[in-house]
Specification:
mainly alpha, 3% strand, elongated, transmembrane helix
Length: 362
């Protein structure tokens, strides 16, 4: 192959291919005038770049979660307490566990959605577009896109599990009698349904798990993990000075402020007599697990200082650049280059995917 062969610039849509017997490599300025052809390939690249398919699947799953709202709630028999007056007379009383007074919600649903989604998005935009103008903050590629996707996936997972469990269990809220408009003047025989408000009765059967708790923890824990990743608190030099160690500890507590807000939202559900403690704990666990899964799907581990806060695609790009450098520089010392290449792949938080892509290049 001649060193003056026809110029071939790498296409942006094609993944890195191993260099076989190169005599020279095109420089970036050589490709400056090469225009990407319009058509299906360019549209496909844009769809992949903005992860349209993943956003679309997330939207479909959220719609599926909302469909559970149309499914009839499990119609459990209304709890009753039998009180025997004598050998022949018996009366029936209401269950005190669901006979609390219904209170006004401290955190209504519109407020939960507005602040639960608005605060993380505002923080992400501040870190990416506002603060870099005033401070030296590292710019992270794909960050806005992947953060929004993580937030959407966490909310969708939590909503899907919560809606399914609510309608499948049909557990009574602590203020069920008050919510369903119970006829307190009638003498109850323990069988007749004395509810006068059908909508209130349906809502009163959706206690388990807490939707407020799951939503709050899904959004706020994603924000907490994101802040922990951006802060990279587990650096090796965090205790080299008194001021540095104190600053890192302060940042650690500040990163957990969103979790404090989520805990407060969950606690209000018990104060307002809308949920039992078991509902709140389960809802919080559903939201927390959803947040961890969504964040781990899109970002590097917060325990790895090198890749903390980086989206998976940015990590793969970084590994690809390092592996390309090794491929081009290895020359006659191939075993050493192979060792370095595998060392790079082992440091990736994405583990198996990075190792598979690197082994294909070698």
């Amino acid at each position: 192959m001649s060193s003056k062969s026809t110029l071939q610039c790498p296409s942006p849509t094609v993944e890195f291919q191993p260099v076989t017997t190169p005599s020279w490599t095109p420089r970036p300025e050589d490709c400056a005038d090469v225009q990407e052809p319009a058509g299906p390939k360019r549209r496909q690249r844009l769809l992949c770049e903005f992860r349209v398919a993943e956003f679309g699947c997330t939207l479909l799953m959220y719609i599926a979660a909302k469909v559970f709202s149309l499914v009839p709630v499990n119609d459990r028999p209304i709890p009753r307490i039998q009180i025997r007056l004598n050998s022949t007379a018996t009366i029936w009383a209401r269950d005190p566990a669901i006979d609390e007074v219904m209170k006004t919600e401290q955190v209504p649903m519109w407020s939960l959605i507005t602040f639960g989604l608005g605060i993380p998005i505002v923080v992400n935009f501040l870190l990416n577009f506002v603060l870099p103008k005033f401070r030296d903050i590292r710019a992270i590629p794909y960050d806005v896109r992947d953060f929004l996707l993580s937030l959407a996936q966490a909310v969708t997972l939590a909503t899907l599990l919560t809606k399914f469990a609510k309608h499948a269990t049909g557990r009574f809220r602590p203020s069920f009698y008050d919510m369903c408009g119970w006829d307190y003047d009638a003498v109850w025989d323990g069988v007749t349904n004395l509810c006068t408000n059908p909508d209130g009765e349906k809502e009163g059967r959706k206690s388990f798990p807490s939707g407020h708790a799951s939503f709050a923890w899904a959004t706020m824990l994603v924000l907490t993990l994101y802040l922990l990743g951006r802060s990279r608190l587990n650096c090796s030099r965090r205790s080299e000075s008194f001021a540095r160690g104190g600053t890192k500890t302060l940042k650690l507590f500040l990163c957990f402020v969103p979790c404090l807000a989520a805990s407060w939202v969950a606690i209000t559900r018990s104060i307002d007599n809308w949920h039992h403690y078991g509902d709140i704990v389960t809802g919080s666990m559903v939201g927390a697990v959803s947040a961890c899964l969504a964040y781990s799907y899109n970002y590097g581990s917060i325990f790895c200082w090198q890749y903390a806060g980086l989206p998976c695609e940015a990590i793969h790009d970084k590994l690809k650049e390092e592996s390309q450098d090794i491929e081009l520089q290895r020359g006659g010392d191939a075993p050493e280059a192979h060792e370095k290449l595998h060392a790079i792949s082992r440091t990736s938080h994405c583990g198996q995917n990075a190792r598979m892509s690197n082994s294909q290049r070698v």
